[in-house]
Sequence to fold (293 residues):
Amino acid sequence: MQVPAIEREIESQPDVWRKAAAVAPRLADALPAPGTRLAIVGCGTSLFVAQAIAALREAAGHGETAAFAASEARLDGRYGFVVAVSRSGETTDVARALGALPDGTESIAVLGDTGSTVAALADRVIALDFADEESIVQTRFATAVLALFRALIGDDVGALADAAERSLDAPLPIDPAAFARFVFLGTGWTVGVANEAALKLREAAGAWTESYPVMEYLHGPISASGSKTAVWALGDLDPSVLASSREASGTVVETGQDPMVDLVSIHRAAVRLANARGLDPEQPAHLSRAVVL
Fold:
């Protein structure tokens, strides 16, 4: 029996990350130099990737970086460069955002499909066609974009790929079918990863999922916790919040892995949960590969 595309794409992530890291040096000149004021726009998964990249770039001292939902971006000239992230390059929101940029703002598109509408609108294109996907639910394109930008700020993406490869062969830290509610917590750049993790289980398995900056979980959401709540910590988080989660009867997942590696396990968990619920992760309800209006 043929392995579903989404499973093949999840398993291909370590190799795709290595490819992204390999092309990073020659793409460095296509991106704004450190110190440049930068905005990143995207939708859905690409928005959450933008959030992670923005926090990583600022933490690395590369300059002020903002992430916007493409439909809500008000790019009035405050940013000299705008990076648009889009797997398909056909998303209406992203095309509209680029088409409305003021004179003097340079645009760069990071795309899976370079023969697309967004590619034609951008001043420069960064092609990650090797990470494009058949699936509606994004996995490897999103993490390839993260891998590219992490390589550009000096992270050891090769080591991350090795760790992800090992995680593909390891048991999942929880059986997702045993839980009714999934909470993903992050801090700094991993808030974007948490948002993306929650989206994956919603898309693929119709799950009740939430995501928060770690301290925000104590400001109300923890009140819904119970024995069927899984709380997944992405990165090194305040232990008092995790202790409170356990006291509220939640099951806390702390793998000690890099959050990008954790995201691969979360992709696997989303597929497993979908299968357990009798759903097809290849055909998520009400979704298409690109939102075109």
Q: What stands out?
A: The chain has a mean pLDDT of 95. The chain has two domains: 5-155, 170-276. Residues 5-155 form a domain with the Rossmann fold fold (CATH 3.40.50.10490).
